[in-house]
C-alpha cells in the first residue's frame, strides 16, 4: 500500500468536492491537506532523486562518498574498537570466551602429521626395527586411527580453559588487535568500493521508505487540521 499516493488522492478528492459543492470548510481542509501532503512527498522524493532547479535535491546520491565514509567510520569506531574486540574475547565473568574449533579441526587433513611421525620413527633408533617388519608400509594401517585420535585430542585441547586463555592472551596483543582492525577495515573498504550511488540509494530507500510514507500522511492530516481551523475562524 502506497501511503503517499493514497493520502494525496484523498486530499485531492476532498479539495475537488469542497470546490464543486461550494463547501468552504471542506475545500479549506482539502487544499491545506493537499499542500501538506504534496510538500512532504516532494521532500521525501528529493532525498533520493535529483529534481531540476531545486538545489539540495538528490542529497543521498550526491553525498555518496560522505555516506560511505560515514558507514566505515561507524563500523570501525563503534563496533570494531579495541574494547569491543576485548569483550568479544571474554565472557560475562571476564574469563576467556570458549571457541568451538572442533568443526574446523574435523576439516583439517592430518595426514602430513602421520607422515612426519613415520619419518621420525625411521630416523630414530627404531628405524632398524621398523625395516625388519616391512618398513613404513607396515605402519600404514595405523594412519586412519592415528588421524581420528589426533583430531579428538586436539579438539579436547581446544576446549580447555588453558588453551582459550592462551588464545585470548595472544589475540589481545596490541599488534594482533591492530592487525585484526586493519583487516576488518580493508574488508569494509573493499565492500564499500563495490557500492554505487544507485545501490546506496536503493539500500536507504528499502530501509526507510515505508516509514517516510507516514510523513506524507501526517502532512496531510496536519494540513487538513490547519485548513479546518482557518475556515472556522474566518481566515480562509
**Largest pleated sheet:** none
State the total count of DSSP E strands. Answer: 0
Euclidean distance between termini CA atoms = 33 Å
Helical segment tally?
12
Helix-strand sequence:
HHHHHHHHHHHH
Task: Determine the fraction of residues in helical runs and give it as a percent range.
Answer: over 70%
Structure class: mainly alpha
Strand content: under 5%
Residue-averaged pLDDT: 83
| Poorly predicted spans | none
Q: What overall form do the CA principal axes indicate? A: rod-shaped
SSE inventory with pairings:
Blueprint: H1 3-20, H2 24-48, H3 59-62, H4 64-79, H5 82-88, H6 102-107, H7 111-123, H8 127-132, H9 143-158, H10 161-171, H11 174-193, H12 197-232
Helix pairs in contact: 1-2, 1-12, 2-12, 4-11
What is this entry, summarized?
With 236 residues, the chain is an all-alpha fold.
Care to describe what's here?
With 236 residues, the chain is mainly α. It is 75% helix and 0% strand. The chain is built from 12 helices and no strands. It has helices at 3-20, 24-48, 59-62, 64-79, 82-88, 102-107, 111-123, 127-132, 143-158, 161-171, 174-193, 197-232. The radius of gyration is 35 Å and the shape is rod-shaped. The two termini are 33 Å apart.
Amino acid at each position: 500500500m502506497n501511503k503517499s499516493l493514497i493520502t494525496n488522492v484523498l486530499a485531492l478528492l476532498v479539495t475537488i468536492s469542497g470546490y464543486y459543492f461550494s463547501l468552504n470548510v471542506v475545500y479549506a481542509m482539502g487544499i491545506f491537506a493537499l499542500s501538506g501532503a504534496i510538500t512532504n512527498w516532494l521532500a521525501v522524493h528529493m532525498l533520493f532523486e535529483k529534481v531540476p532547479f531545486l538545489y539540495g535535491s538528490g542529497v543521498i546520491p550526491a553525498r555518496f562518498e560522505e555516506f560511505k565514509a560515514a558507514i566505515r567510520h561507524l563500523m570501525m569506531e563503534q563496533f570494531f574498537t579495541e574494547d569491543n574486540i576485548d569483550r568479544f574475547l571474554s565472557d560475562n565473568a571476564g574469563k576467556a570466551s570458549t571457541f568451538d574449533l572442533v568443526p574446523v579441526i574435523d576439516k583439517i587433513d592430518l595426514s602430513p602429521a602421520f607422515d612426519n611421525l613415520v619419518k621420525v620413527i625411521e630416523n630414530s633408533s627404531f628405524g632398524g626395527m621398523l625395516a625388519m617388519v616391512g618398513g613404513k608400509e607396515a605402519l600404514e594401517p595405523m594412519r586412519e586411527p592415528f588421524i581420528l585420535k589426533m583430531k579428538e585430542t586436539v579438539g579436547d585441547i581446544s576446549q580447555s580453559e588453558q588453551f582459550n586463555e592462551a588464545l585470548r592472551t595472544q589475540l589481545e596483543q596490541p599488534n594482533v588487535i591492530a592487525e585484526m582492525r586493519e583487516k576488518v577495515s580493508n574488508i569494509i573498504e573493499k565492500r564499500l568500493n563495490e557500492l554505487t550511488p544507485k545501490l546506496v540509494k536503493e539500500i536507504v530507500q528499502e530501509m526507510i521508505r515505508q516509514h517516510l510514507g507516514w510523513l506524507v500522511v501526517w502532512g496531510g492530516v496536519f494540513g487538513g487540521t490547519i485548513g479546518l481551523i482557518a475556515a472556522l475562524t474566518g481566515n480562509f
